TrEMBL record:
Name under which the protein is recorded: Reverse transcriptase domain-containing protein
One Pfam entry name: RVT_1
Signal peptide positions (record): 1-20
Domain Reverse transcriptase: 31-272
Keywords noted in UniProt: Signal
Keyword DNA-binding: no
Entry annotated with the keyword Signal: yes
Domain of life: Eukaryota
Naturally occurring in which organism (per UniProt): Pelodiscus sinensis
PROSITE patterns in the cross-refs: RT_POL (PS50878)
């Protein structure tokens, strides 16, 4: 029966059938009129640690990818489309974000940034580039702050409530070489490997930016900041931008990964 339900939902979603949205509406209505709790099976995850680089004995060098309910992922996809429509209707897309965004990629990220930087350099300017990266970005998103931002952005109230319950009371365990750890409570973050995780993260950091005319481009949690640095005043503006970004990270309970934050000084007249 479970396979039949899963395959039926898959077919409805694949052909973009209105019936798939009936399933979505039914799930949301059930949520509103019952206890308001997402099924536990939809809130648990087996974590597969994926090695990135560095010492293999350091747990911090692994990316925790969540294996979650496939049926839940189908509903997540429907909800994601609803969230996208709400954002488009409200004009709240983050124009600086190139990660997990339709029509954008690493290439568009690099081209957009370096087109502006090379223009500065071609005009004989000194240019400073700052590369910023959050530590454990997806895993440390505070749920309370995220939900407040979803409300401000104008996400459908029913969808926001579902997301809230989907994030609450999550459990996870690590699976490695056939061995399982015990279950642990999840108190922050959006699941890596889920459908909704990336777009929720993008919405959370949409207001991560500067007030000056500096060039700022994002790819998920990786941010590049570039600005002219001809004078002391220019460098003061860059410092003010960095102060704004640090203040944002403090107020949103996110930490920068100092090992991955770098500075580059470009231009033959750059005195730094």
């Amino acid at each position: 029966a479970g396979f039949i339900l899963l395959y039926s939902l898959y077919l409805l979603l694949k052909i973009n059938s209105p019936a798939s949205y009936c399933v979505f509406n039914f799930c949301i209505e059930c949520l509103e009129h019952s206890t308001g709790v997402v099924p536990l099976d939809w809130r648990i995850a087996n974590i597969v640690p994926i090695f990135k680089k560095g010492e293999k004995s350091d747990p911090g060098n692994y990316r925790p990818v969540s294996l979650t309910s496939v049926v839940c992922k189908i509903l997540e996809k429907i909800l994601k489309e609803k969230v996208v429509r709400d954002i488009e209707a409200n004009g709240n897309w983050d124009k600086l974000q190139h990660g997990f965004t339709k029509g954008r990629s690493c290439q568009t990220n690099l081209i957009s940034f370096f087109e502006k930087v090379t223009d500065f350099l071609d005009k004989g300017n000194a240019v400073d580039l700052i590369y910023l990266n959050f530590s454990k970005a997806f895993d440390t998103v505070p749920h309370g702050e995220l939900l407040v931002k979803l409300e401000k952005i104008g996400i459908n109230m029913k969808v926001e409530r579902w997301i809230s319950n989907w994030l609450k009371g999550r459990l996870q365990r690590v699976i490695l070489k056939g061995e399982l750890s015990g279950w642990r409570k999840v108190t922050s973050g959006v699941p890596q490997g889920s459908v909704l995780g990336p777009i929720l993260f993008n919405l959370f950091i949409a207001d991560f930016g500067t007030k000056s005319g500096s060039v700022l481009i994002k790819f998920a949690d990786d941010t590049k900041l570039g600005a002219i640095a001809n004078s002391e005043k220019d460098r003061d503006i860059i410092q003010e931008d960095l102060d704004d970004l640090v203040n944002w990270s403090d107020s949103n309970r996110m930490k920068f990964n100092s090992e991955k934050c770098k500075v580059m000084h470009l231009g033959i007249n750059n005195k730094n």
